[in-house]
Each structure stands twice: as C-alpha cells, then as structure tokens.
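agent> step 3/5: call structure_predict on target 'non-specific serine/threonine protein kinase' (Lipomyces starkeyi NRRL Y-11557).
agent> reason: downstream docking stage needs a structural representation; sequence fetched in step 2, passing through unchanged.
tool.input:
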Amino acid sequence: MSTLDLRIGNKYRLGRKIGSGSFGDIYLGTNIISGEEVAIKLESVRAKHPQLEYEARVYKILAGGVGIPFVRWYGTECDYNAMVIDLLGPSLEDLFNFCNRKFSLKTVLLLADQLLARIEFIHAKSFIHRDIKPDNFLMGIGKRGNQVNVIDFGLAKKFRDPRTHMHIPYRENKNLTGTARYASVNTHLGVEQSRRDDLESLGYVLMYFCRGSLPWQGLKAATKKQKYDRIMEKKMTTPAEILCRGFPAEFSLYLNYTRSLRFDDKPDYTYLRKLFRDLFVRDGFQYDYVFDWTMFKYNQNHNTINSRNGEAEQIEENPEDKDTRAARSGTAVAVSQNTQQVGTVPSSARPVAAGGTTPSRRKVTDWQAARDALDPMAADIARRAAGADRILRSSAKTPTPNPYASAPQPMQYRKEDAPQNGASSNIPQQWY
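tool.output (status=ok):
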C-alpha cells in the first residue's frame, strides 16, 4: 500500500508531501469529516531509531503554550507511525529566501522577541530543544499568521527533573546533536547541552538573518567530522564583536552573555528580551506585525495589479486587440461576445442574493477589487501596510503610543520560575 492510500486514524486522508523533519516526512492531510487541513508526520515502523512517539509525548507535555502546535492524533497505521498535528505556514527559512536572504532590523527584532518567548516556555517545561534553526520555526496561518510556532522536538531532551528541578549532570565526549551551522561552541566541544546552548544557537540564527550568512558557511572538508571541526574552529576564533560588526551592539551583548553562562545557569530571559525591546523603541519601530515578507508580498501584488490594470485600460481603448494582448501577456481575459465586458466579474464568480437572484454586473475599475480577486490575502496585507503608513504619516503630528514604550523598567519586571501556558506571549499589551 502506498502512503497516499493511507487513512490515518480512520479520520484523516493523506495528501502530498510538504516537507521533512528529523526522523520523518510530513504530508498534507485532510479531515474527511470536516474538510479541515492538517499536517501528518510519518515514520517507518522499521526505523532504526524511532523517534515519533517520543516527539508526540513532548508535544503533549508542551500543549497549551503559545506557538506550540497541537497534536490531534498519534498511532500506527500499516507500516507507519503517524502523528497528526496543526497545519502551519512557511518556515522562517522559507520566508528568508522569499525576502532575498536578508531581513531588516525591524523584522529581526520582531522575531527575536517571539523566539525568546518560545524558548523560555520550552525551558520552563524542563526541556531543551537542541535543534534551534530557522527551518524549525513556522509562521501560523489565518488569524494566527503573525505568530511564530516552534516544531520538530525529535531531538528535545529533559535538562532537569520536572518535580525536583534537579539539573542533569555535566558530561563531555558527547556527539554533536543538532545542526552544525547553529550549534553552540560547547556542543562542538562535546559538552552536554543545557539551556545556554539553545540561546547561543538563537544568537547565530539572529545574526544569520541580519547578515544573510554566517562566516562558517560553505567550508569544505573531506569528511563530515573534518567539516564540523572546521566550523568549530571558525566559530571559536570569531569573537562576537566581529560576527556582529555593523549591527547594533545588543547582538554582541546577547552572544557574549549566552557564551558566559555556566552549564546549569538559569538564563535571564527578561534581560535578553529587554535588550532587543529597548533597541526596538530606540530605533522608532512600530509593533504592527508588518514583517519584511508582508511588505514584499504587498509590493509584488501592487505592481502586478497596476500592470494588469494598465493592460485592461488599453484593451478597453482598443477592443479589437484584446485577444492578442491577453495571449501575449499570458493573462486570461474571459470575454463573452454579447453578455460580458472586459473587466466584468464573471457570472460564475458573482455572489447570489438571498432570494436566488444574481446582483447586477459591475466593472472592476479599482485596483483594490482586482487585487483581491488575484490574491485573497492581499486585502489583509494591504490593510496592515496602509495602517503602518498612516502611523508614519501621523507620527510627525501626534506621537503614537508604542507598546514597547509602556514596558516596565527592569526592577518592575515580574520574576517567575515557570511561566504557565506560554505566559511569555508575543501580544504587546502583555509585556512583562
């Protein structure tokens, strides 16, 4: 039986493959009752080192946290272990490529705050992730499209007893676990990982987003071990100040802080978040959820619509050329000889009134309506972008309150050992 013939839990139909994670492939799935789309991760029951059941258990322990996907079902179907989980959007690596492999400082800081919150929550639940990288952070979809989610807990490990908080012992001679590009120096040296290593890896991720690449990328070697050794050597001989040269000092402060932590130290997450929040305020950014890819997508749509609107106007001026122009541009312009004009909403696409009659035809003469027809998400993107423009235009007259600006000073921050249910929310009004 092929994977596409599988029915998972008698409830989910398997679709196309959409990705791969540690120890498994991920497929698009559909709830055959509700039609809701989900993600389904499959692992062969004959896998040499099965991990999916363990990963499902970790997700269950972390359930309820902000940015933690919910596991709908786990079990075995035919020759596969299967986990059904929330469907999410593109990864930060996907979006990085979409934005020509460079993020603005604003986008990096917007992400940094959410990423720190996710890692803090995982640590509060007594786990370390051990594979912090852009591919393992996915944006949400729909109403949660601005929320960063963390995935792939196949390498996660408990660093302490959840009840006694007794930390695991310090060990050496460990194999490298995770992704070499973002691994901490101590991980390269074979030291048992702890909370500090997740945070150091995050520092490399942030600089990767700022710089476009890291100095130890692209190194050649005959064997994997030799390559890892070269990466380690380059990492160890690159001071944080050199790695972060040309960028705000907060990034080198962050890296130096994480590298200075002892094995069982509890990181000061509040201090690290405040580093980046203060930088955010100082540079005058607005917490409006307008990321680089939001503007990139908006500008692409805007240019495309303007181009197509220009063609439509030319077609209306020269109706005898409309079919030739449509064929040359690759734009499908459906025209019925007697009943439909160019730019008219097709009858099949027009809404039907409650009484069963079709509203009268109207020409699509404004670019906003055409834009929405091309891309259902464009209206929301444009709304957020326009809101950001209005804020910028009005800021010269009346200062707009910034959610960061109301954040309490360090001595007023609430200290707590274990935030409950993702207390480190990315919602600005809940800064603490």
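agent> step 4/5: record observation. Residues 216 and 231 are 5 Å apart (CA to CA).
agent> proceeding.
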